[in-house]
From TrEMBL:
The keyword Phosphoprotein applies. Keywords: Phosphoprotein, Repeat, TPR repeat. Pfam families: TPR_1, TPR_16. InterPro entries: FKBP4/5/8-like (IPR050754), TPR-like_helical_dom_sf (IPR011990), TPR_rpt (IPR019734). This is FK506-binding protein-like. It comes from the Eukaryota. SMART domains: TPR.
Length: 349
């Protein structure tokens, strides 16, 4: 074994006896040998949670909520596993899945088998526990068919369907939901039958399914269930968006109907975007112009709101809804101007 190099800093004590120097050298070498022979603690793996969410998450961003959920998952992991020496397997970044719309974060508890996942038409045998909503899925094991059935219209239905689309057979996972402080929801996928991706469907099949979703959405909207109707319209649009451009004209109606739901749900920004899709294809679409005007007024964009509502009245001068809304916008604009004038007087008075 080579002796360690002598440090070049400081002056060497040449008056030290040779015997003492050899004794110190032997002690140092013994210490090094003992250190090398000591058992080492297993290295602690760093939990990598900084996974970039799917780009689709930009559609409905929920960044703060997702970061909070990830922090909670990290804390739960440390609490449940205890010390590093007792941890059977460290949680990997791949064990976390971020739902693109930010509605939940999934943590895999038991990994599934294979690579296949449920698709449209797959009959899934599942068990769901711990849902915070008033009425969750049936207790115990139940069978749910992807893309089919009234269960998808429930508050928990869309959440389960989105999660199942990311699961493999035999997988068990915990879901952390924004604003839910209780224990995480647990979902287990025991088995599922073979289904089909939307791109595997014929054009006629997609259009037929979209018509069914639209009809069901209209029923829910008339019954006062704007949230359920929005889900139906959204699913219909996802089917039709896979068709080559320009796509069927029904897309225009679906976007207009979705905008009406979004206004009722207090989502004016999304409503304005849905109306934009309609007006790209039909610039004179009265309902889209009116709903975009209402959305812009809710967002405080009074000039844009006025422009849209005046377009409606130019086409249909007797449109009472547009007249009333334009009157509200005018009053809101006067209040805004008065407040601005008062602020300027205080600043320069």
């Amino acid at each position: 074994m080579e002796t360690p190099p002598v440090s070049t800093t400081g002056e060497k004590d040449i008056s030290q006896p040779q015997q003492q120097w050899e004794k110190n050298l032997r002690e140092n070498l013994d210490s090094v040998t003992q250190i090398r022979q000591q058992p080492r603690d297993p290295p602690t793996e760093t939990l990598e949670l900084g996974v970039n969410p799917d780009p689709a998450s930009q559609i409905l961003e929920n960044t703060q909520g997702t970061e909070k959920l990830v922090a909670e998952l990290e804390g739960d992991s440390h609490k449940s596993h205890g010390s590093t020496s007792q941890m059977p397997e460290a949680l990997q970044a791949s064990d976390l899945w971020y739902c693109p719309d930010g509605s939940f974060v999934k943590k895999i508890i038991i990994r599934g088998h294979g690579l296949d996942k449920p698709k449209l038409g797959s009959c899934c045998r599942v068990q769901a526990l711990g849902f915070p909503f008033g009425s969750g899925p049936p207790e115990g094991w139940t069978e749910l068919t992807m893309g089919v059935g009234p269960w998808r219209e429930e508050t928990w239905g869309e959440l389960i369907e989105k999660c199942l689309e990311s699961m493999c057979q035999g997988e068990e996972a915990e879901l952390q939901l924004p604003g839910h402080s209780g224990p995480p929801v647990r979902l287990t996928l025991a088995s599922f039958t073979q289904g089909r991706d939307s791109w595997e469907l014929e054009t006629s099949e997609k259009e037929a399914l979209a018509r069914e979703e639209r009809a069901r959405g209209t029923e829910l909207f008339r019954a006062g269930n704007a949230e359920g109707a929005a889900r139906c319209y959204g699913r219909a649009l996802r089917l039709l968006l896979t068709l080559p451009p320009p796509g069927p004209p029904e897309r225009t109606v679906l976007h207009a109907n979705l905008a009406a739901c979004q206004l009722l749900l207090g989502q004016p920004q999304l409503a304005a975007q849905s109306c934009d899709r309609v007006l790209e294809r039909e610039p004179g679409h009265l309902k889209a112009l009116y709903r975009r005007g209402v959305a812009q007024a809710a967002l405080g964009n009074l000039e844009k709101a006025t422009a849209d509502l005046k377009k409606v009245l130019a086409i249909d001068p007797k449109n009472r809804a547009a007249q009333e809304e334009l009157g509200k916008v005018v009053i809101q604009g006067k209040k805004q101007d008065a407040g601005l004038a008062q602020g300027l007087r205080k600043m320069f008075g």
